[in-house]
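Please, structure for the following, as tokens.
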Amino acid sequence: MCMLVTLHLKAAGQGARPQRNKPAISPAVETAVQARERLNKALQNRDLLKSIGEYDEYQPLEARPIREMRAIFECLGSYGYGLGPAPRREPSGLVAIFGLQPQHISRTEKVGSGCYNKLTKIELKLGFPQLDAYGMARRSRASNSLEAYYRRLKRERKERSDKKGGVSSDNKKKVDDTFFVITTEEANSAARDAVRCLEHAMVIIAGEKNIYRTIVTPTMKKDDDGDEDDDDEQELSPFHKKACVAAYSYVVGSVVDRALDIIETVFLKEGGIGQTSGSSKDGSTSASTLSIAEAHAAAAAGLRMLDGVRMLGPSLAKLCEMSVGDQKTESNTSIAAVLCIAIHRTTVKNAARTLENLAKAIQDDPAKGKLNRPPNASVSSVSRDVVHAIRAISPFVSAYKSVSKRRALPWDPNMGEDAGEMDSFVRYLVMRLLNNLKGKAIEYTQDGKEDSQNKAHIFMINNAFYLLEELGNNEPDVLQPADSDYYRISGSWFNDKMNKMMESEKKKYLEDWEALNVHLTAVDNNELEFLKHDSKTLSHESGRLIKQRFSGFNESFERTYQLHKNLCIIDPCLRLSLQQDVTAVFVPRYRRFFEKYTRVKFSKKHQGEYAKFTPERIEEMMGEIFVDP
């Protein structure tokens, strides 16, 4: 009879079928924001399962197999297969399914093996052969259903990648047991598919619950409402109902287990949590380190998966939950229930690791390093990478809060309600970036060139201006769009920090131009002696004092101008502003000096050579310094 149950349940097929109505947005191209909006609407719908995934729950059993299996289950009943009295000791197989604690459930199988914990692969021995047959048969069907769906998504993702000329994670070659570059699109697609698998798992579990209620539940009513007046009624086992629930938990637990393995596989391959981030101890950069671009792709993917787990987790747990009703067994200690908790706990842990990897990558800049900096002192690639990183993670405010509430982070040791918001992490990333930029600026000064110090200041000005333009919030009272491309840091600390840094670096930069004023000091009237026969011509000694000042200025100005004229300023407005600031440093003083001493003749033959730069010419030259990127 149990063999017949097995044959019927395996032949029945999966408890889900494709939806008839196609979604408005294809799940294969759905963005994180679109997915969140869709899931929010779905959670507000009473019939949640109609609004998620691409499949509907389905009863695959036909009427005749249902009648046959019900007859078998009723025949065997609570303890109908035994000749003696029902045993009073709990079957050992029930202990493996119930009484589990979430903190004791961890990965026992290799990531990507198709299984997270070996408990979902054990052979059922619940003390009731018909329930063992049901559990083993439907476990195989349910887990294979999710596996087939996952393989289809991977195949479709590979086809899309091949069309675009990319390389999917499955086709990456390995070097020193590490994967090559993680791309944002690849990580995002993998995270999207992981959430789709979680949605599909819920539909499969709902279908399995339908099958359970059709086949197993009717026999449980006999336990609750048995007819005491029937003299032929067999003795009922006190563990029958618990075994029924255990069999169901075993079936749906295998689905949750596979979904958990899929999510962790994405974290390992596309999320790079198996790789380090930053430089090695000896300062070198190995092939296994994550660049900032890779780390931010992984962090955004991790938060996207956590977003899905956070929103769907309670509904998934409710689908897996089934009460025993014996006043002793807690329903949240079954294998399925603790695996539901493990999904959230593991995803939070792994998402936290991707965030830590991102912060470390920004600090160490493994792919570029301090020595790699733009020759023209323009915007560093690390600044652009960090802007992209902040924009990539900015939509996942609630997912980040799930991490910070449950994990003590290097930038936010508080947990629970005292945990920080996304802004605290963004601030930490910005501070790591500024430390990185300062290190690069110091490297400029160690080049030993005349313009090295100037390049260091211009480099910091350019990067501060870029960050302010990209992330600064000039209109704090205006509601920001949800689109991450328009993300702005709301706290005033960022604008204050960037403006203060720009002013500090600008002040240091202008000191080089202020050195020109040393040559523009006035000559004491007591030292000016005119020729007796010409009241406008200075004597040789007096003229020499003015010649020295003009000569010193001309030489210093020409040298300074040559050093500065080809420095890069990234923005036309910033360039004009800095030109005006440079002009204000010395030109007004030079104009007064020029107008005062060109009125007298301090050189008989070469006065034009000494006073070769008119104030107008210098202002014109000041409008020509600095170049575009």
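The two ends are 80 Å apart (CA to CA). The first strand starts at residue 16 and ends at 18.
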